[in-house]
Protein backbone atom coordinates (compact mmCIF):
# COMPACT_ATOMS: atom_id res chain seq x y z
CA UNK A 1 0.00 0.00 0.00
CA UNK A 2 1.22 3.47 -0.78
CA UNK A 3 1.18 6.47 1.54
CA UNK A 4 -2.30 7.62 0.51
CA UNK A 5 -3.79 4.14 0.87
CA UNK A 6 -2.28 3.80 4.34
CA UNK A 7 -3.81 7.12 5.33
CA UNK A 8 -7.19 5.96 4.02
CA UNK A 9 -7.07 2.67 5.96
CA UNK A 10 -6.01 4.52 9.13
CA UNK A 11 -9.05 6.75 8.64
CA UNK A 12 -11.35 3.71 8.37
CA UNK A 13 -9.88 2.33 11.59
CA UNK A 14 -10.51 5.63 13.38
CA UNK A 15 -14.15 5.46 12.20
CA UNK A 16 -14.54 1.92 13.61
CA UNK A 17 -16.64 2.90 16.63
CA UNK A 18 -18.98 4.94 14.43
CA UNK A 19 -19.40 2.01 12.03
CA UNK A 20 -20.42 -0.28 14.90
CA UNK A 21 -22.67 2.39 16.42
CA UNK A 22 -24.43 2.91 13.09
CA UNK A 23 -24.90 -0.85 12.69
CA UNK A 24 -26.49 -1.02 16.14
CA UNK A 25 -28.89 1.82 15.39
CA UNK A 26 -30.01 -0.02 12.24
CA UNK A 27 -30.37 -3.35 14.10
CA UNK A 28 -32.64 -1.67 16.68
CA UNK A 29 -35.20 -1.12 13.88
CA UNK A 30 -37.35 -4.23 13.27
CA UNK A 31 -37.38 -3.69 9.50
CA UNK A 32 -39.39 -6.72 8.42
CA UNK A 33 -41.51 -6.70 5.27
CA UNK A 34 -43.61 -3.51 5.01
CA UNK A 35 -42.07 -2.14 8.26
CA UNK A 36 -38.83 -0.84 6.79
CA UNK A 37 -39.58 2.88 7.22
CA UNK A 38 -37.68 3.25 10.51
CA UNK A 39 -34.50 1.72 9.12
CA UNK A 40 -34.65 3.66 5.84
CA UNK A 41 -35.17 6.91 7.81
CA UNK A 42 -32.07 6.20 9.93
CA UNK A 43 -30.11 5.45 6.75
CA UNK A 44 -31.21 8.70 5.13
CA UNK A 45 -30.34 10.76 8.22
CA UNK A 46 -26.91 9.12 8.49
CA UNK A 47 -26.08 9.75 4.83
CA UNK A 48 -27.09 13.39 5.18
CA UNK A 49 -25.08 13.75 8.37
CA UNK A 50 -22.05 12.44 6.46
CA UNK A 51 -22.59 15.05 3.75
CA UNK A 52 -24.36 13.02 1.07
CA UNK A 53 -27.56 14.17 -0.64
CA UNK A 54 -30.24 11.52 -0.44
CA UNK A 55 -32.75 10.41 -3.05
CA UNK A 56 -35.72 8.22 -2.13
CA UNK A 57 -36.63 5.65 -4.79
CA UNK A 58 -40.23 4.41 -4.48
CA UNK A 59 -40.98 0.75 -5.14
CA UNK A 60 -44.48 1.64 -6.27
CA UNK A 61 -43.33 3.85 -9.15
CA UNK A 62 -44.28 3.02 -12.73
CA UNK A 63 -40.59 2.90 -13.66
CA UNK A 64 -40.02 0.08 -11.17
CA UNK A 65 -43.21 -1.82 -11.94
CA UNK A 66 -42.59 -1.85 -15.68
CA UNK A 67 -39.00 -3.12 -15.36
CA UNK A 68 -38.53 -6.68 -16.70
CA UNK A 69 -36.89 -7.72 -13.41
CA UNK A 70 -39.86 -6.62 -11.31
CA UNK A 71 -41.52 -9.49 -9.41
CA UNK A 72 -45.28 -9.34 -8.73
CA UNK A 73 -46.12 -9.37 -5.01
CA UNK A 74 -49.45 -9.58 -3.17
CA UNK A 75 -48.61 -6.89 -0.56
CA UNK A 76 -48.66 -3.11 -0.95
CA UNK A 77 -45.69 -1.24 -2.36
CA UNK A 78 -47.13 2.18 -1.46
CA UNK A 79 -45.01 4.53 0.64
CA UNK A 80 -42.05 2.16 0.66
CA UNK A 81 -38.67 3.46 -0.46
CA UNK A 82 -35.03 2.71 -1.06
CA UNK A 83 -32.46 5.32 -0.04
CA UNK A 84 -29.77 6.19 -2.57
CA UNK A 85 -26.94 8.67 -2.91
CA UNK A 86 -24.37 9.17 -5.61
CA UNK A 87 -21.09 10.81 -4.68
CA UNK A 88 -20.04 12.72 -7.81
CA UNK A 89 -16.53 12.34 -9.22
CA UNK A 90 -13.99 15.05 -8.41
CA UNK A 91 -12.15 14.44 -11.67
CA UNK A 92 -12.30 11.83 -14.45
CA UNK A 93 -10.09 8.87 -15.14
CA UNK A 94 -11.39 6.20 -12.77
CA UNK A 95 -14.10 3.56 -12.99
CA UNK A 96 -17.47 3.93 -11.25
CA UNK A 97 -18.58 1.78 -8.32
CA UNK A 98 -21.89 1.00 -6.69
CA UNK A 99 -22.45 -0.40 -3.19
CA UNK A 100 -25.77 -2.11 -2.59
CA UNK A 101 -27.05 -3.35 0.76
CA UNK A 102 -30.50 -4.29 2.00
CA UNK A 103 -32.19 -2.91 5.09
CA UNK A 104 -35.05 -5.41 5.27
CA UNK A 105 -34.75 -8.37 7.62
CA UNK A 106 -36.61 -11.65 7.98
CA UNK A 107 -38.84 -12.19 11.00
CA UNK A 108 -37.10 -13.04 14.26
CA UNK A 109 -39.62 -15.80 15.05
CA UNK A 110 -40.55 -16.34 18.67
CA UNK A 111 -38.35 -13.90 20.67
CA UNK A 112 -38.48 -16.36 23.59
CA UNK A 113 -36.18 -18.61 21.62
CA UNK A 114 -33.54 -15.89 21.51
CA UNK A 115 -31.08 -15.46 24.39
CA UNK A 116 -31.70 -11.70 24.20
CA UNK A 117 -34.27 -9.43 22.54
CA UNK A 118 -33.55 -9.69 18.79
CA UNK A 119 -33.98 -5.95 18.36
CA UNK A 120 -31.81 -4.84 21.27
CA UNK A 121 -28.34 -5.00 19.68
CA UNK A 122 -25.83 -6.38 22.16
CA UNK A 123 -22.06 -6.82 21.96
CA UNK A 124 -20.51 -9.86 23.65
CA UNK A 125 -16.93 -11.07 23.11
CA UNK A 126 -16.43 -9.29 19.80
CA UNK A 127 -19.80 -10.32 18.33
CA UNK A 128 -22.79 -8.06 17.73
CA UNK A 129 -26.10 -9.90 18.27
CA UNK A 130 -29.48 -9.04 16.79
CA UNK A 131 -31.82 -9.78 13.90
CA UNK A 132 -30.24 -8.24 10.81
CA UNK A 133 -26.88 -7.64 12.51
CA UNK A 134 -25.20 -9.87 9.92
CA UNK A 135 -27.86 -9.96 7.20
CA UNK A 136 -27.04 -7.27 6.49
CA UNK A 137 -26.98 -4.07 8.47
CA UNK A 138 -23.28 -4.44 9.37
CA UNK A 139 -22.48 -4.54 5.66
CA UNK A 140 -24.60 -1.46 4.99
CA UNK A 141 -22.69 0.43 7.70
CA UNK A 142 -19.32 -0.79 6.38
CA UNK A 143 -20.00 0.26 2.78
CA UNK A 144 -21.36 3.65 3.85
CA UNK A 145 -18.32 4.44 5.99
CA UNK A 146 -15.89 3.16 3.35
CA UNK A 147 -17.11 5.95 1.08
CA UNK A 148 -17.18 8.44 3.94
CA UNK A 149 -13.58 7.56 4.83
CA UNK A 150 -12.41 8.84 1.43
CA UNK A 151 -13.86 12.28 2.21
CA UNK A 152 -12.75 12.17 5.83
CA UNK A 153 -9.16 11.39 4.78
CA UNK A 154 -9.24 14.44 2.54
CA UNK A 155 -9.24 12.66 -0.82
CA UNK A 156 -11.51 12.97 -3.80
CA UNK A 157 -12.40 10.25 -6.32
CA UNK A 158 -11.89 10.03 -10.06
CA UNK A 159 -15.26 8.32 -10.68
CA UNK A 160 -18.75 8.47 -9.19
CA UNK A 161 -19.75 6.11 -6.38
CA UNK A 162 -23.32 5.17 -5.53
CA UNK A 163 -24.52 3.93 -2.16
CA UNK A 164 -27.93 2.31 -2.23
CA UNK A 165 -29.79 0.87 0.74
CA UNK A 166 -32.71 -1.15 -0.54
CA UNK A 167 -35.68 -3.11 0.76
CA UNK A 168 -37.43 -6.31 -0.42
CA UNK A 169 -34.14 -8.19 -0.84
CA UNK A 170 -35.54 -10.99 1.31
CA UNK A 171 -38.69 -11.55 -0.74
CA UNK A 172 -38.66 -10.22 -4.31
CA UNK A 173 -35.57 -8.19 -5.20
CA UNK A 174 -37.85 -5.32 -6.18
CA UNK A 175 -35.84 -2.75 -4.21
CA UNK A 176 -32.66 -3.25 -6.22
CA UNK A 177 -34.71 -3.44 -9.42
CA UNK A 178 -36.36 -0.09 -8.62
CA UNK A 179 -32.92 1.56 -8.32
CA UNK A 180 -31.69 0.01 -11.57
CA UNK A 181 -34.88 1.14 -13.29
CA UNK A 182 -33.99 4.69 -12.23
CA UNK A 183 -30.56 4.29 -13.82
CA UNK A 184 -28.37 3.63 -10.77
CA UNK A 185 -25.55 1.34 -11.85
CA UNK A 186 -21.77 1.05 -11.58
CA UNK A 187 -18.87 -0.56 -13.44
CA UNK A 188 -18.20 -2.54 -10.26
CA UNK A 189 -21.06 -3.54 -7.93
CA UNK A 190 -20.24 -4.69 -4.41
CA UNK A 191 -22.78 -6.17 -2.01
CA UNK A 192 -21.61 -6.87 1.55
CA UNK A 193 -23.82 -9.91 2.16
CA UNK A 194 -22.56 -11.79 5.22
CA UNK A 195 -20.86 -14.65 3.38
CA UNK A 196 -17.48 -13.57 4.74
CA UNK A 197 -14.55 -11.94 2.93
CA UNK A 198 -15.02 -14.05 -0.19
CA UNK A 199 -15.67 -13.28 -3.85
CA UNK A 200 -19.02 -14.62 -5.00
CA UNK A 201 -18.90 -15.97 -8.55
CA UNK A 202 -22.07 -18.08 -8.76
CA UNK A 203 -25.53 -18.03 -7.31
CA UNK A 204 -28.64 -20.12 -7.82
CA UNK A 205 -32.01 -19.06 -9.09
CA UNK A 206 -34.89 -18.97 -6.61
CA UNK A 207 -38.64 -19.18 -7.14
CA UNK A 208 -41.39 -18.62 -4.59
CA UNK A 209 -44.81 -20.23 -4.94
CA UNK A 210 -48.03 -20.90 -3.11
CA UNK A 211 -50.29 -23.95 -3.41
CA UNK A 212 -53.86 -23.40 -2.26
CA UNK A 213 -56.46 -26.14 -1.99
CA UNK A 214 -59.97 -26.80 -0.79
CA UNK A 215 -61.42 -29.62 1.26
CA UNK A 216 -64.91 -30.09 2.67
CA UNK A 217 -65.69 -28.75 6.11
CA UNK A 218 -67.65 -30.81 8.69
CA UNK A 219 -67.81 -31.42 12.44
CA UNK A 220 -65.29 -34.11 13.42
CA UNK A 221 -68.14 -36.47 14.37
CA UNK A 222 -68.87 -36.66 10.63
CA UNK A 223 -65.17 -36.50 9.80
CA UNK A 224 -65.44 -39.27 7.24
CA UNK A 225 -67.77 -37.17 5.11
CA UNK A 226 -65.37 -34.23 5.29
CA UNK A 227 -62.14 -33.71 3.40
CA UNK A 228 -59.26 -32.36 5.43
CA UNK A 229 -57.57 -29.66 3.33
CA UNK A 230 -54.49 -29.58 5.57
CA UNK A 231 -53.91 -33.31 5.14
CA UNK A 232 -54.37 -32.97 1.37
CA UNK A 233 -51.23 -30.79 1.38
CA UNK A 234 -49.07 -33.74 2.46
CA UNK A 235 -49.00 -35.73 -0.82
CA UNK A 236 -48.38 -32.50 -2.76
CA UNK A 237 -45.40 -31.61 -0.55
CA UNK A 238 -44.09 -35.16 -0.96
CA UNK A 239 -44.35 -34.82 -4.75
CA UNK A 240 -42.45 -31.52 -4.66
CA UNK A 241 -39.73 -33.25 -2.62
CA UNK A 242 -39.56 -35.66 -5.54
CA UNK A 243 -39.07 -32.74 -7.93
CA UNK A 244 -36.30 -31.41 -5.67
CA UNK A 245 -34.56 -34.81 -5.85
CA UNK A 246 -34.92 -34.85 -9.66
CA UNK A 247 -33.38 -31.39 -9.95
CA UNK A 248 -30.45 -32.48 -7.79
CA UNK A 249 -29.89 -35.49 -10.04
CA UNK A 250 -29.60 -33.34 -13.18
CA UNK A 251 -26.10 -32.50 -14.40
CA UNK A 252 -25.02 -29.34 -12.54
CA UNK A 253 -23.05 -26.44 -14.01
CA UNK A 254 -19.31 -26.90 -13.20
CA UNK A 255 -19.34 -24.59 -10.17
CA UNK A 256 -21.98 -26.72 -8.45
CA UNK A 257 -20.50 -30.12 -9.34
CA UNK A 258 -18.72 -30.50 -6.00
CA UNK A 259 -21.66 -29.54 -3.80
CA UNK A 260 -23.88 -32.07 -2.04
CA UNK A 261 -27.58 -31.31 -2.59
CA UNK A 262 -27.26 -27.76 -3.97
CA UNK A 263 -30.93 -27.51 -4.98
CA UNK A 264 -33.23 -27.07 -2.01
CA UNK A 265 -36.98 -26.92 -1.54
CA UNK A 266 -38.24 -25.19 1.57
CA UNK A 267 -41.86 -25.25 2.67
CA UNK A 268 -41.79 -22.10 4.75
CA UNK A 269 -45.45 -21.38 5.54
CA UNK A 270 -48.43 -23.66 6.01
CA UNK A 271 -51.82 -22.22 6.77
CA UNK A 272 -55.30 -23.64 7.18
CA UNK A 273 -58.04 -24.51 9.62
CA UNK A 274 -59.57 -22.55 12.46
CA UNK A 275 -60.77 -25.09 15.04
CA UNK A 276 -59.48 -28.39 16.47
CA UNK A 277 -62.91 -29.97 16.08
CA UNK A 278 -63.65 -28.76 12.55
CA UNK A 279 -62.35 -30.49 9.43
CA UNK A 280 -60.54 -27.64 7.65
CA UNK A 281 -62.05 -26.63 4.30
CA UNK A 282 -59.08 -24.65 3.05
CA UNK A 283 -55.32 -24.86 3.32
CA UNK A 284 -52.28 -23.49 1.59
CA UNK A 285 -48.55 -23.86 1.76
CA UNK A 286 -45.84 -21.53 0.50
CA UNK A 287 -42.52 -22.77 -0.77
CA UNK A 288 -39.18 -21.76 -2.16
CA UNK A 289 -37.32 -23.84 -4.74
CA UNK A 290 -33.87 -23.10 -6.14
CA UNK A 291 -32.49 -23.96 -9.59
CA UNK A 292 -29.23 -23.83 -11.47
CA UNK A 293 -27.78 -20.83 -13.32
CA UNK A 294 -28.72 -20.87 -17.00
CA UNK A 295 -32.26 -22.13 -16.31
CA UNK A 296 -35.17 -19.75 -16.93
CA UNK A 297 -37.59 -19.37 -14.01
CA UNK A 298 -40.52 -20.11 -16.31
CA UNK A 299 -39.16 -23.61 -16.84
CA UNK A 300 -39.15 -24.27 -13.09
CA UNK A 301 -42.57 -22.73 -12.56
CA UNK A 302 -43.96 -25.08 -15.22
CA UNK A 303 -42.33 -28.07 -13.47
CA UNK A 304 -43.83 -27.06 -10.14
CA UNK A 305 -47.28 -26.76 -11.74
CA UNK A 306 -46.86 -30.09 -13.51
CA UNK A 307 -45.68 -31.85 -10.33
CA UNK A 308 -48.67 -30.58 -8.37
CA UNK A 309 -51.04 -31.48 -11.23
CA UNK A 310 -49.72 -35.06 -11.45
CA UNK A 311 -49.89 -35.58 -7.69
CA UNK A 312 -53.44 -34.21 -7.63
CA UNK A 313 -54.44 -36.60 -10.44
CA UNK A 314 -53.63 -39.54 -8.16
CA UNK A 315 -56.04 -38.36 -5.46
CA UNK A 316 -59.77 -38.82 -5.90
CA UNK A 317 -60.69 -35.53 -4.22
CA UNK A 318 -57.88 -33.40 -5.65
CA UNK A 319 -58.61 -34.68 -9.15
CA UNK A 320 -62.00 -32.97 -9.03
CA UNK A 321 -60.87 -30.08 -6.80
CA UNK A 322 -57.51 -29.18 -8.28
CA UNK A 323 -55.02 -27.24 -6.17
CA UNK A 324 -54.19 -23.75 -7.39
CA UNK A 325 -50.51 -22.85 -7.80
CA UNK A 326 -49.58 -19.17 -7.79
CA UNK A 327 -46.20 -17.48 -8.01
CA UNK A 328 -45.26 -14.31 -6.16
CA UNK A 329 -42.05 -12.72 -4.90
CA UNK A 330 -38.76 -14.24 -6.03
CA UNK A 331 -38.60 -15.35 -9.63
CA UNK A 332 -34.87 -14.87 -9.73
CA UNK A 333 -32.53 -16.51 -12.15
CA UNK A 334 -29.03 -17.62 -11.16
CA UNK A 335 -25.74 -16.70 -12.75
CA UNK A 336 -22.10 -17.73 -13.01
CA UNK A 337 -19.20 -15.35 -13.60
CA UNK A 338 -15.48 -15.97 -14.15
CA UNK A 339 -13.31 -15.31 -11.13
CA UNK A 340 -10.82 -13.23 -13.14
CA UNK A 341 -13.08 -10.30 -14.05
CA UNK A 342 -11.13 -7.03 -13.55
CA UNK A 343 -13.25 -5.88 -10.60
CA UNK A 344 -12.94 -9.28 -8.88
CA UNK A 345 -9.16 -9.39 -9.40
CA UNK A 346 -8.79 -5.87 -8.07
CA UNK A 347 -10.96 -6.68 -5.04
CA UNK A 348 -8.83 -9.75 -4.43
CA UNK A 349 -5.71 -7.58 -4.60
CA UNK A 350 -7.17 -5.24 -1.96
CA UNK A 351 -8.00 -8.21 0.27
CA UNK A 352 -4.47 -9.54 -0.20
CA UNK A 353 -2.88 -6.16 0.62
CA UNK A 354 -4.77 -6.10 3.92
CA UNK A 355 -4.64 -9.76 4.96
CA UNK A 356 -1.66 -11.23 3.13
CA UNK A 357 -3.69 -13.87 1.31
CA UNK A 358 -6.11 -14.28 -1.55
CA UNK A 359 -9.88 -14.17 -0.98
CA UNK A 360 -11.64 -17.48 -1.45
CA UNK A 361 -14.34 -17.87 -4.08
CA UNK A 362 -17.91 -18.32 -2.91
CA UNK A 363 -20.45 -20.49 -4.71
CA UNK A 364 -23.85 -19.54 -3.33
CA UNK A 365 -26.85 -21.85 -2.96
CA UNK A 366 -29.17 -18.92 -2.39
CA UNK A 367 -30.00 -15.70 -4.22
CA UNK A 368 -29.02 -12.07 -3.58
CA UNK A 369 -29.63 -8.73 -5.25
CA UNK A 370 -26.63 -9.50 -7.46
CA UNK A 371 -29.20 -10.99 -9.83
CA UNK A 372 -30.56 -7.55 -10.71
CA UNK A 373 -27.13 -6.19 -11.58
CA UNK A 374 -26.07 -9.32 -13.48
CA UNK A 375 -29.18 -9.64 -15.61
CA UNK A 376 -30.15 -5.99 -16.02
CA UNK A 377 -27.07 -3.90 -15.18
CA UNK A 378 -23.79 -3.25 -16.95
CA UNK A 379 -21.18 -3.73 -14.19
CA UNK A 380 -19.22 -6.58 -12.65
CA UNK A 381 -21.16 -7.60 -9.52
CA UNK A 382 -20.04 -9.65 -6.53
CA UNK A 383 -20.52 -10.07 -2.80
CA UNK A 384 -17.77 -9.56 -0.21
CA UNK A 385 -18.95 -9.10 3.35
CA UNK A 386 -18.57 -9.65 7.07
CA UNK A 387 -18.54 -12.94 8.95
CA UNK A 388 -21.94 -13.76 10.46
CA UNK A 389 -23.62 -16.74 12.09
CA UNK A 390 -27.25 -17.84 12.43
CA UNK A 391 -28.57 -15.48 9.75
CA UNK A 392 -32.35 -16.09 9.45
CA UNK A 393 -31.99 -18.10 12.69
CA UNK A 394 -32.00 -17.55 16.43
CA UNK A 395 -29.21 -15.44 18.03
CA UNK A 396 -27.95 -14.05 14.71
CA UNK A 397 -24.57 -12.41 15.19
CA UNK A 398 -21.79 -10.72 13.24
CA UNK A 399 -18.08 -10.54 14.09
CA UNK A 400 -17.21 -6.90 14.75
CA UNK A 401 -13.63 -7.10 13.46
CA UNK A 402 -15.00 -8.48 10.18
CA UNK A 403 -17.26 -5.42 9.74
CA UNK A 404 -14.24 -3.13 9.96
CA UNK A 405 -12.33 -5.44 7.65
CA UNK A 406 -15.03 -5.05 4.98
CA UNK A 407 -14.91 -1.26 5.33
CA UNK A 408 -11.11 -1.32 4.97
CA UNK A 409 -11.23 -3.50 1.85
CA UNK A 410 -14.00 -1.41 0.29
CA UNK A 411 -12.10 1.84 0.97
CA UNK A 412 -8.98 0.40 -0.64
CA UNK A 413 -11.11 -0.79 -3.55
CA UNK A 414 -12.35 2.77 -4.07
CA UNK A 415 -8.76 4.04 -4.06
CA UNK A 416 -7.67 1.53 -6.69
CA UNK A 417 -10.81 1.20 -8.85
CA UNK A 418 -12.23 4.72 -8.83
CA UNK A 419 -8.77 6.21 -8.15
CA UNK A 420 -8.11 8.89 -5.57
CA UNK A 421 -8.12 12.54 -6.57
CA UNK A 422 -6.01 14.55 -4.19
ZN1 LIG B 1 -28.99 -10.65 2.96
Automatic annotation (TrEMBL):
InterPro entries: ArgE/DapE, Bact_exopeptidase_dim_dom, Peptidase_M20, Peptidase_M20_dimer, Peptidase_M20A. Belongs to the peptidase M20A family. Residues 205-315 form the Peptidase M20 dimerisation domain. SUPFAM superfamilies: Bacterial exopeptidase dimerisation domain, Zn-dependent exopeptidases. PANTHER family: ACETYLORNITHINE DEACETYLASE, PEPTIDASE M20 DIMERISATION DOMAIN-CONTAINING PROTEIN. It comes from Desulfofustis glycolicus DSM 9705. It comes from the Bacteria. This is Acetylornithine deacetylase. Keywords: Cobalt, Hydrolase, Metal-binding, Zinc. Its cofactor is Co(2+); Zn(2+). One of its GO terms (molecular function) is metal ion binding. Pfam families: M20_dimer (PF07687), Peptidase_M20 (PF01546).
